[in-house]
Structure formats: C-alpha cells, structure tokens
C-alpha cells in the first residue's frame, strides 16, 4: 500500500509540474514565438496598429520567413502585392523606400504592411476583423460584402465570408492573435 501512495503523490506532483509549465506564458512562447519584435513594435506603434495583429498576420502569411514570394507575386513576410506596395510608397510618401527592397528587407516590408493596415483600419472604422479580411481579399470585396449584407464584419459570422480562403485566413489570424494576446502581455 505504501508504494501505491508514493506513486500517487509522485503522479500528482508530475501533473502539477506539467500544468505549471503549460500555464506559464514564458513556456508557451516557445510554441508561439514572435520574430522581428523591434520592427513590429516600432512600425505598428507609428501607425496605431496593435503589434500582436501584425505578428499574427505575419505568422499566417509566411511564418516569419524573410524573402517569401507567393505564386500570385505577394512579397516579403507580410505578403504585400507589388501594386499595393507601390500605392503605399506613393500615398505615405516613403521616398526612402524602393520597391525592390519590399521582398527581402523585413523592416521595410513591415513598414509598408503596417501603413496599409492603418489605411484599412481607417476605411473600416477600426473594425479589425474586417481589416484582416480586407488585407487578404482586398477592401473593395469586403466593402461589397458588408454593403450587400452578405457578411456583417464580425468574427462570429466569418462563415458568411464568400471566399473560403479569406474565411480561413480571418479565422487563423484571429486564432494567432488570441494566442499571442494570452502569452505576450505587451510587445
């Protein structure tokens, strides 16, 4: 009987240790790391965008892999389309930014991506769910969905987003945002 009691105590201690490990955010950050923290913090701050939204978008777009280029031609860790990058460079008057740097320079990519997110946030009155959808599907599509009543711009109704890719994208970005919010008190 004594050995059974000792095993129970050891099992409870082991379970308690495992529980503490998984409830500790420092441990969880190993499963949900954020890279380019300084660049994300700086450019998100300059554009009044939650840095954890930026991190979640980067996680979904490229998993922080620099120099990425999609089959459709989206560039860099935030997967910015060249026409969008040109538009941002022009509208934001980023005279020190060249289009050929967007793909390989993560800081430049984050700078353009966060400015674009701020522009989308202005268009959608700060509705970050609609902003995330527009980042993927384009603002015109999202405005049309909302105007027609097809989608109301809420996370709870993402099933109504007509594009499956965008529906899945919004859900994934929201998932990573939630995880990052639980792990990182501030970025």
UniProtKB/TrEMBL annotation:
- Tell me, what's a Pfam family for it? SLT
Top-rank taxon, per record: Bacteria
Transglycosylase SLT domain location is: 41-151
Q: What is this protein called?
A: Soluble lytic murein transglycosylase
């Amino acid at each position: 009987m004594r050995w059974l009691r000792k095993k129970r105590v050891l099992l409870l201690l082991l379970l308690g240790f495992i529980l503490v490990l998984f409830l500790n955010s420092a441990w969880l950050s190993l499963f949900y790391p954020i890279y380019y923290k300084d660049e994300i913090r700086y450019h998100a701050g300059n554009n009044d965008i939650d840095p954890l939204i930026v991190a979640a978008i980067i996680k979904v777009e490229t998993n922080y892999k620099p120099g990425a280029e999609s089959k459709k031609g989206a560039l860099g860790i935030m997967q910015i389309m060249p026409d969008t990058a040109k538009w941002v460079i022009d509208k934001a008057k980023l005279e020190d930014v060249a289009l050929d740097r967007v793909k390989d320079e993560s800081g430049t990519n984050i700078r353009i991506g966060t400015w674009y997110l701020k522009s989308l946030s202005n268009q959608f009155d700060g509705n970050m769910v609609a902003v995330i959808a527009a980042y993927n599907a384009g603002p015109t599509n999202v405005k049309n969905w909302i105007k027609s009543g097809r989608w109301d711009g809420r996370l709870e109704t993402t099933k109504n987003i007509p594009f499956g890719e965008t529906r899945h994208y919004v859900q994934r970005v929201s998932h990573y945002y939630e995880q990052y919010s639980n792990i990182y008190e501030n970025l």
